[in-house]
Design a protein that fits this description.
With 316 residues, the protein is α/β, with parallel strands linked by helices. Helix content is 29%, strand content 25%. The protein has a seven-stranded mixed β-sheet with strand order 5-4-3-6-7-12-11. S-adenosyl-L-methionine-dependent methyltransferase.
Length: 316
């Protein structure tokens, strides 16, 4: 299984059954914390790495990552998210979704397939990656998909979202009066506001943001949501297999690691996620660990994956 996949098995009738509790997280925690070989993961960490490591360096690393995997084969469509977040299936006409860190479109494409009503605004820190996402979606040759997705470049760790995306009550009035939006978006197009979105998806994106920048990033999500709107969150959880594989020299912060290709990853506990979202003004609806066993059949190894699942709502 690829990073971020949950276990879906088809029954005798071909219906997908979803599994996300293959083992107990507390038991995994006890096992890991009692293993001396993992002790370095829990040591205090003091470093000026994050301050000296610029956002431009992070963006360049992710650009190179997506270039290496430009064939689209590295990521599979994340269809399991429709089981995790059924709200994406049942939202009505004119519903708007902001997908942050869209990559090559592995999240937005299954949503477009499953819901003919939703309009998606997708951003990424790399224009090249956005072009590749549009190519993949265009290759489906479904015209309605192309018309329902609009892309723009934005780095969640440092940028603010453009004015036309932010929620503002006066924008709703403008829409009610029949003023139309264009399909060309830029920060200067303040008269073509969409008036906020109904959903924000943060799928394996926040973990790539330096920890000290996360509160500001979550607050940005708050500003673009309509009252009652939701953030749908999924990211790497504490004691995930990939965390335990990092060598000591790959630590760049507490629970924060740098891969050999320069991309970073943070591993979340529930309290960290809760504090980030509640601190930004959100109400917690759901928050839990997804614990999935996947098997590498070629190597005959069982792998324990841990992700954090969350839903957070902007108060009405």
């Amino acid at each position: 299984m690829k990073n971020g996949e949950s276990r879906m098995i088809c029954d005798s009738e071909g219906k997908a059954e979803y599994f996300n509790k293959d083992f107990d997280w507390e038991e995994l925690r006890a096992e890991v914390e009692s293993n001396p070989s993992f002790h370095y993961h829990f040591l205090p960490f003091q470093s000026s790495f994050s301050q000296s490591h610029s956002s431009e360096t992070d963006v360049d690393a992710w650009k190179q990552f997506h270039t290496r995997h430009s064939s689209g084969k590295f990521f599979k469509e994340r269809r399991y998210l429709l089981k995790e977040f059924p709200e994406l299936l049942h939202c009505g006409p004119n519903s708007k979704l902001l997908e942050i860190g869209c990559g090559n479109g592995s999240t937005v494409l299954p949503i477009l397939r499953a819901n003919k009503y939703v309009v998606i605004y997708a951003c990424d820190c790399s224009n090249e990656t956005l072009e590749r996402a549009k190519e993949i979606i265009s290759a489906t040759k479904v015209v309605s998909y192309i018309h329902r997705i609009h892309t723009f470049c934005c780095d969640l760790s440092t940028d603010v979202f453009p004015n036309w995306l932010a929620y503002n009550p006066c924008q709703d009035v403008r829409a009610d009066k029949g003023l139309h939006f264009t399909n060309s978006y830029s920060s200067e197009d303040c008269d073509t506001c969409v008036g906020g979105v109904d959903f924000v998806t943060l799928i394996f994106t926040l973990s790539a943001v330096p920890l000290e920048r996360m509160p500001r990033s979550i607050k940005e999500c708050f500003t673009v949501l309509k009252p009652g709107g939701m953030v749908l969150f999924r990211d790497y959880g504490l004691y995930d297999m990939t965390m335990l594989r990092f060598e000591p020299q790959k630590r760049v912060g507490f629970r924060e690691y740098m891969r050999s290709d320069g991309t970073r990853s943070y591993f979340f506990c529930l309290d960290t996620v809760r504090n980030l979202f509640v601190g930004a003004g959100f109400t917690e609806l759901e928050l839990d660990y997804c614990c999935v066993k996947s098997v590498n059949r070629r190597k005959g190894k069982s792998m324990r994956r841990v992700w954090v699942h969350g839903k957070f709502q902007k108060p009405t």
